[in-house]
Amino acid sequence: VPLLGAVDTAVIGHLDDAYNLAAVAIGSTIIQFIYWAFGFLRMGIGGLAAQALGSKDAPEVRALFTRGALIGLSVGLV
Hints:
By secondary structure, the protein is mainly alpha-helical. Helices cover 86% and strands 0% of the residues.
């Protein structure tokens, strides 16, 4: 995601108006915040699923998958 912001800045930087570059900077910052803020879902569910798999608790693994999928879909719809 940071590479995307750098490419956008490089492309928009060739335009004459500084407002375009400011808009890209703000948009890139917001997108990066959303991307990294919801990285907790991947990291949190991964650790809990590893513990459940290690203890051979299949119902808990299914519950974690379901919870993670529901949270991901809910955030994706917003």
